[in-house]
């Protein structure tokens, strides 16, 4: 059933506590290198402030192990960027449930925004601590979840806070609603052929997804380093490629289950020095024939062509994980070929995963896909068929 939206509640002079995912990448000088997650939260933010609400935003950034004071995990740069995007400064509290946050929350005026410091500076956030959650909950009249990238987590701000606000409005934001609708439509009622493309480094993170996708897709294309674990499962030679030996048995099961649906590379672009891909010896070999002194860095041109043909005829495409070490040319060629084929297709295309989104941006294809998800782990969790407690507990429309 649809969840009640932020637009459907009265916010005039009310304080809304909104969980956003401002977990944005920062460079060494703490400048934001990709503000997509902040921009994508703007519709919900504007919905509150343009209707006279007082808005408190809370988020995590990274995975700090210490407490407050570790500048590299501060949300201050995100607050500044939000102020720039809104065209008016936002308030920033240097704590989450301490004196600064409570003083600034108390003096918030209609139409103003307060950003709290990183929730994960408080150990209670990851533990789902009820006392910490209670303090956050006490600050507001309504709760909104617009943190899609964190929806698969049960952190305090995602679950314990809305639980503590039972009886008050608890609604979904625009970004979460849009992401969930896109993925649900793709998985639940896909226009066919439905093609999934999975790559990246780790089989272990994606093995359950492959299993679920084999049940619902017409074709699953495997690239990236995870292809070599499958190659091992077929007794192929993988040289020094990245493999997960403890997943070989699982890979065998998937090969048996997948049959013709599961597409594996037929050739591999390999090299002999990961540290110097541009300058090292490179060659293209048949899949499963990687020399002992080399490792696989990308799908080969024959695979790229085969995959592109499958992709061009698709009507729904889900892509998670690059086809190779796309950061280091020429090992970006396989990923580029896949991105180009997606751009050429007239399919609904959904890109999930931090690195896949970065690849699409970096290679200049971001405008040509239907939807670039702001959540890697969250979109994978949806593809696995997981339910989100953080969304289930919100009010029905
Ligand atoms: N053949 C390969 N060998 C080593 N690393 C690879 C290979 N193919 C892809 N990668 C790396 O995988 C990383 C992305 O993996 P992953 O985090 O699983 O993807 P995503 O973030 O899109 O889910 C990239 O940094 C890429 O360089
Ligand atoms: O960046 C995130 O996830 P993602 O890298 O899987 O997209 C989210 O902000 C969740 O962060 P977490 O994985 O530290 O809980």
Task: Summarize this structure as a short list of keywords or feature phrases.
cytoplasm, Phosphoglycerate kinase, six-stranded parallel β-sheet, alpha/beta, nucleotide-binding, Phosphoglycerate_kinase, 397 residues, 36% helix
Can you put this structure into words, describing what you see?
- The protein has 397 residues and is α/β, with parallel strands linked by helices.
- It is 36% helix and 17% strand.
- The chain contains 16 helices and 17 strands.
- The strands form four sheets. A six-stranded parallel β-sheet has the order 3-4-2-1-5-6, with helices on both faces. Strands 10-8-7-15-16-17 form a six-stranded parallel β-sheet, with helices on both faces.
- α10 crosses α11.
- The mean pLDDT is 94.
- The protein binds adenosine-5'-diphosphate and 1,3-bisphosphoglyceric acid.
- Adenosine-5'-diphosphate binds next to β14 and α14.
